[in-house]
Fold these 3 entries.
Entry 1:
Amino acid sequence: MKPITIEEIAGYRIPGALKYSPDGSRLAFQVTRADLEKNEYHTSVWIAEAGQARQMTFSIDASIAFWEDSETLILRRKSPDARPGVSELFRLNIRGGEAEPWMTLPFPLEQIEKMGDRYLATGLIRQADPDAYLDSEEVRKQKEADREKEKDYEVLEEVPWWFNGQGVTSGKRTALFLVRRKAEGQADCRRLTAPDFSVDSRLCVRDGKAWFTGAHQGRVQGLTNQLYCYDGKLSCLYRKKDYGISDPFLLNGRLFFHATDMKAYGCNQTADLCTLEDGRIRTVFAPPVTLYSSVLGDTAEGGAGSCSDGREYLTLATVDDHNAIFAFSADGDALSCRTLWEEPGMLCGLDAGGGKIAVIYQGWDHVAEVFEMNRDGSGWTQLTNLNGEALKDHYIARPHRLDYESGGLKLHGWVLLPEKYSPRRKYPAVLDVHGGPRCAYGETFFHEMQVWAARGFVVFFTNIRGSDGRGDAFADIRGDYGGEDFRNLMDFTDAVLKAYPGIDPKRVCETGGSYGGFMTNWIIGHTDRFCCAASQRSISNWISMARISDIGAFFSSDQNGTKGITSDRDVAVLWEHSPLKYADRVKTPTLFIHSEEDYRCPLAEGLQMMQAVALQGVETRMCLFHGENHELSRSGKPLHRIRRLKEITDWFERHAKNS
């Protein structure tokens, strides 16, 4: 059979953004494909109706904003000649014809929802100039000219001052707007929130009201926020600053939402489903697992993971190593939960309508496709075949589960074998460590792992302590980074070598990104059992991480059990858990992959470790990607993703061959 190649990662078509029409008869979704010649992506809009999917847009790049009615989609389009700072919306009748201009909004749009004959939208503003959306064309052009003069300078006045994938965010806010469409596509907009206020959740709009969460932001942004309602006037329903609140929804006319006080398990604590009672937040359901998808893949796109029709709330959940769909119904103030659907693999999008549920599903043997089922979870049907041809006649390595014990825990992982694997031969291997740490590997297609299996490597991966899917207590490794998690990985490696004696223990490679990059840096400072390593978007120094990452102000101290960097003890603890401290022990040839605009695990983290390893006389190499961020492996430019995987694969093959 054909081997899966590095370059084929650019050949997949990835669905996303599922949205049923108001009457539930049609499902709209987006499909993204790579353009290698221009090194960019194009997005088209598709419709599924009566079990058949068809492409609706061909000549424009468009994304779905919302359904205006059951035959009319409103699309967001970026025209080549669009004015800076505005958002163009187009109308598409699904019965045929081209998308035509509908309305232009005078601000960068984030979300828009229909509310009667008006619309509620969230969009980007500058706190220092919150009403720029009202500027005349002449004033707008003058401000653009003024900003052009200042393009070489950046003034930072708050923390965090940047955010991964968004660039510099200092002074920027997400405002709530009331929008009316006027004649000839003009928009009458009114900002509803204060200049310093930022909306931070999806809008829940029903029966002329809207609920959302957000906060007034000062010089230091916190982890808590407040709950708001708009029904012609804006009101704050919960003012205290003691919960992180998200995703409000209605059931039987009663408002529910996700909320966490972060007291038991820190910033990664699972949010409860809550309601308001006499002005207080009351938990009505404490989920045993996270109510979203944290199963990982490199060929699937995210999307909304929950929806409510007012009678039932559906949400994705991460259960052990796979996803499920939970259905919640309200009985007075209480919530009951049932598992509607649960299978191996990953889900990365969900919507419901017309007695149907649509999901984006990826199993071990195929890239993401759109599936549909009945509202009770029966009648599982595949609606798209976007990637069948791309994988036709290819060898896809099936994950073989391997159970093992480590530190008193019963754990499991998987092994991918090369085609025609024989225990009588000797094979190189790759240990791949996931990010997070609160994420999970599962039985789902992973392009990079399939490439390595196609090139003759045995690939193995696992969910260690700290992973998602088994509750907060299992996921809690605060103060123990590099402790039990490291031991789990080494025990898993031992178990794989014992179960598969065809693996040459002298030719085992290791890699990981984000938390997996931290662990790669930690591994090379604590063992030389691997012939080489590839550290991706890593953490090497918790002290510097705390002061430059977009989440560093809270994440470093939270995950390491300190109150900040305010004492000698804090510094000592952070340094104790920093891989950089142990760089003088490194003997493993290590490749570093990092993106210049990675603001989650900033470039300095990789550079520090790379230089420290080089100063030990150990072979090292850094491949730095300009114009990319923390999401390089998942959503980076097509040619960059190919180059990244080629760098890692070449590094593995050269060192596994020479070992």
Entry 2:
Amino acid sequence: MNDLIPSAPTARLIVVLGDQLSLDLAALKGADQARDVILMAEVAEEAGYVPHHKKKIAFLFSAMRHHAERLLAMGWRLRYVTLDDPKNCGSITGEIARALQDFCLTQVCLTEPAEYRLKAAVQDWARDRQVALEMRLDSRFICDHATFQRWAEGRKQLRMEYFYRDMRRKTGLLMQGDKPEGGKWNFDSENRKPAADDLFMPRPLRHAPDQITKDVLALVADRFDTHFGELHPFCFAVTQEGAQEALEHFVTEALARFGDYQDAMLEGEPFLYHSVLAQYINAGLLDPLAVCRRVERAYYEGSAPLNAVEGFIRQIIGWREYVRGIYWLKMPDYTQQNFLQAQRALPDFYWTADTDMACMASALRQTRDHAYAHHIQRLMVTGNFAMLIGVNPHEVHEWYLAVYADAYEWVEAPNVIGMSQFADGGILGSKPYAASGNYINKMSNHCAGCRYDVHQKTGPQACPFNPLYWDFLIRNQDKLGANPRLSQAYRTWDRMGDDKKRAYRQSATAILKAL
């Protein structure tokens, strides 16, 4: 792929990043296939700035190589730099500089990187080298930065629900004129059912590795053997066609029950009725609006109920667009927010899954094995526990960024810093998502097989979430006591007897010391 002749002086270098694997990419609009050169590169700097899950690296490298093959077949001039290329500079900016020199080019065009860190690096490099850089907005998102800024301006609270309604109006999804389908904007109250373990559970579509993927798996096994996670079995789609097949499989096999059970957790059932499509959407293999329109069609065809379809669409045009807006509105300082001044180190068992807490062990094992956990496992199990014990939110942020195949900083940081850890002090969420073991017992079957007793509130056999919940609230009362959504909890604490309060605090202290 690298034996191209130099280009004409007016030609451009078009950079396609690893999460921009779309044929409709903004940087490709108006490009000259005969003269412009596309650059794609696997670089150590991007693969290793956090210890990304082996499956995540393999997915992206294989998807990049397949995308490059498709671009070549379409007639594009393309340089693809593999990780093991002896000339590989190890960074995106280094590979841009090398390609400019090799092809006698002076102009660079790329779609805006999704992460602030990389965008700043490319802009700083271009300015220092006096390189002509055109950076185009990423048209794969529905709401651009300026539109989100206008929406946020002057608002005391940036609540997703109101933003989501604007996105429904803009896209026309599930709308009847200017009214929402079914008379309500949000059917979340119908989407909180615990799942019985005798329900039929579909599985996400499994894709057999082809030779390109097998080569990547061997590379990852060799170069990233110390990284987190299991590499095999590897079943992700790595092409647009494969991702589309995964979407169709979800719509026909799982969507109908997605809404009812989207918050449920079951031992040994990592996927339930979830789509497991986020890594394909975030990498560019699926267009988010097209995905929503396909899901919407299932409702109008009568194959999926409104609560399932609305709940799924809300996650994409509501939550996904919203957290991206928060990210770009609040960076570069957002990932360093620490409203509760939490300083504890992340426990080692987040990497090993070696814990007696059944819910934690289950979420951590499936994260290790599949590079996946659904939103309630991330928010109400692993995230909840980290917040209750007071882990430094930046450490939590870097862990989530590393371990999930769909994690990129623009989507992961607001979910962790804001939603999971309340480290932004309420910019994103109206209260901390703190919960005792009762919530987990209600939404899962983990507690029945746990060595701890969810019904015991204190003592060595008590579910750790129980005393930690109260300890968290009292430890942070100076910052959270005035929060109206926590007023009932603080009133409950005030009514407790001194012996009960003391037992909660002593039990929590014992757990924290053991960590």
Entry 3:
Amino acid sequence: MKKLKLIVFSAGTLLLLLYVFIESVNLNPLYIEGALFWAAVISAYLLVFALFRFGEFTFSKLGDMVNGEKPFNYVPQRKFPRMVKILIIVPWAFLAVMLLISSPLVSWGAYRDQLGESEYKEFSADVQAVDMSQVPIVDQRLAYNLADKKLGEKPSLGSQVHLGEPTIQMVNGRLIWVVPLQHSGFFKWITNLSGSAGYITVSATDLNDVDYVENYKIKLQPNGYLLHNLTRNVRFTAAPFTGITDYSFELDESGQPYWVVTTYRNRRGFALPEATGVILVNASTGEKQAYPLSEVPDWVDRVQPESFVLNQINNQGRYVHGIFNFADKDKFKTSEGDNIVYNNGECYLFTGLTSVGQDESAIGFMMVDMVTKQPIRYQINGATEKLGMSSAQGKVQHLGYTASFPLIINLDGQPTYFMTLKDKAGLVKQYAFVSVVNYSSVGVGESIGEAMRDYAQVLRKGGSSIAFEQMGEPESILGKIERIAFEQADAALSYKMILQEAPDRIFIADSALSEELALTQPGDRVELQFIETGTGIVDVTAFDNLEFIQKK
């Protein structure tokens, strides 16, 4: 009996330790996973102890089992003592009490107030005019595809690694997506214990700016093995009793990759998680440093998990007048989708707000600082992002393009959705501007400048206008025409040109820009002014054929 008892407890303890290691369990009972863990462990150990202490197991012989006997029987010698029953009940009672405390029925005020008081601002006064040469035109999916294409240029590397999740960030004034390379399997890891071969950066503003950086190894990874697994490594070396979540891959100013791991605590029982700081994990060496919110390094863009922020916004709207607001008075919620945006170098989560029951109409927008969690609210009535996307797609429905999730920008104080239009292969084909206030006002074009001109023309018909200074500073170029052709779309006629001096760009000029365009031929020397977009397709703002000057 004692030998059986030893075997059962030893095997159970071994399985328990294996479970803790594999699942990287938070052992703090003030978090629900920790409370459930300890309740189950305490109950299991006490139950097994009581079974052996207050009863006896008898085992049947093989022949008896063949004849239908049970393999073993348990004969209780006496009842379980009350103290054992109490000790088993206590952790489950604690769990029940904490769940009750966590309920909005008990603490709805904490749910409503967790985000904090929003600062109300005028959209035109706070959101700065966007330099269109820096507007992000590459979303996460496209960044992944471009990084995958870059990885495909190195066949030997592509067989060893796969792409991680792209993270958008501002690095030394450049808005880029950073994509870590991760081991593609166990044997790839075991033969490269020093780490996978670097990461790929994809410019968020230039489709052609994709770089592979091989100077840094990625040793710790979300899908890693043993203690090279990011979660497991952080849990057992830095945060055994701390809530950790939201592992984002970021670069410091030198290009060194880090995993930014958010630490958090619960404000009410097991509910209302609140970010308390970060653990910065050097992805190459595994070195770690914990920082409270007030001391997070400047290069870290994101501390607040998006899920935390969105839940807090929705809780503020759901419990705006308490838990028994059955008439839904003043209730609001986030619209379908959100965006990470940068304003004056700071990282924000930007999402639309809609009234409960009015999903197609925006009542405003919320911008939340992703480090400090300071919320800013803009009161703007208009269309939701989803409606803006549908309106843009309707303008090009004959082409079958789909719109990316829009970015809200400020054009002369007017809130405007900006988005890319992609074909079925996910390639950017056109750009679109949609008015937030009047989503029927849509401008599209093959370049950002062309789309803006189309948008401005639509607004002028409605009695409004946009200054073209919003497009950025014009540049000039002297060159010789390599190829030129015209294209007519509806009533608009435009000319497309390639210069010998800039073979990687397509210059697009509206026919109304100059009468000389219709007479221009390959070989003519021209002077162009244009707006750089970083896409390879640029919009011409001034055109002069220098051949006609010589003939005068």
